[in-house]
Write a structure and sequence with these properties.
The protein is of the alpha/beta class. The protein contains 9 helices and 13 strands. Helices cover 38% and strands 20% of the residues.
């Protein structure tokens, strides 16, 4: 017995979902536990493994299609026709049409008229990993040819993608059509991150204000306000524009997650409080003198 596991993630013509892959992971886990030989077919654009169109159908006794809608479509007809001599099963699928059901010998419906079952993704066992909040900076043309914003952003985005790091973007603008944005919204997101990667001064400040370690990436050649603010707060994890690459980001992330920066986080908040007090005293003194 040899099983080929497929799904919408097996086709270049469509974009599958994370849920489709999690369903396949469940089936692969069952096959592994049972000691059954199997392969998973991936769309070429995912670059993860075999393309079913390049495989010899005679090598497989079973074809299993996992997750998503099941109907009589050209792609499913092509797949099932290629494996016409195999036992064809559909698992964790939403049966949209009886014609689609007819392409398979056995079907375990996720849902169909009169049927509703839990999706296989509910049993996910993927490990917990750190979540990174990322604040990109605009071109900052006020710095002229010293701005490296595009290059720094490209390096960060490439690193996030290559390492498959879970991340979300911190947008710092007060307004994004059609709604305005408030500080409390951004701060709530900062608090839920494990690390902040920031090209922006205020994302650096907010991360430290809420006790979240920050990888400060100065996008200006020779350093500018991001580096200056990190120095003012005594924060050590700063990458100059010329040094932002995958290796430097890896090392900075390891440092940020090491648990060794507790004192630096506390010192940043202490310096911030002292700075606020000094600014308040100056402001009120100057106001009284005026």
């Amino acid at each position: 017995m040899r099983v080929l596991v497929t799904g919408w993630f097996s086709f270049d013509e469509v974009i599958a979902t994370i849920g489709d892959e999690l369903g396949a992971d469940a089936v692969v886990g069952w096959l592994t536990e049972a000691g059954i030989d199997h392969d998973v077919a991936w769309a070429p654009y995912l670059q993860r493994g075999a393309n079913w169109r390049d495989l010899d159908p005679a090598d497989y006794t079973h074809l299993v299609f996992v997750s998503g809608p099941l109907s009589d479509t050209p792609l499913l007809r092509e797949l099932t026709a290629a494996f016409a001599d195999a036992q064809r099963w559909a698992v964790n699928v939403s049966v949209v049409s009886d014609a689609g059901r007819g392409l398979f010998h056995r079907v375990w419906e996720r849902d169909a008229p009169g049927i509703a079952r839990p999706d296989l993704a509910i049993g996910t066992t993927t490990p917990d990993v750190p979540v990174v909040a990322v604040a990109f900076a605009p071109p900052q043309e006020e710095y002229g040819d010293r701005s490296r914003a595009a290059q720094v952003r490209a390096a960060i985005e490439s690193w996030l993608g290559a390492r498959a790091i879970p991340w979300f973007e911190l947008t710092m603008d007060l307004y994004e059509k059609p709604h305005e944005r408030f500080p409390l919204q951004v701060e709530a997101l900062v608090r839920r991150a494990d690390v902040v990667v920031s090209m922006r001064l205020h994302a650096l400040v907010l991360g430290l204000a809420h006790g979240v370690p920050v990888i400060a990436c100065d996008a200006i050649g020779g350093g500018a306000k991001v580096s200056a603010q990190a120095a003012a707060l005594g924060w050590p994890v700063v990458l100059p524009a010329e040094q932002v690459d995958a290796n430097a980001l890896d090392a900075a992330l390891e440092h940020a997650l090491s648990g060794t920066l507790t004192q630096e986080l506390a010192e940043a908040r202490r310096r911030g409080a002292a700075g606020n007090a000094a600014a308040r005293e100056w402001f009120l003194r100057e106001l009284a003198g005026g």
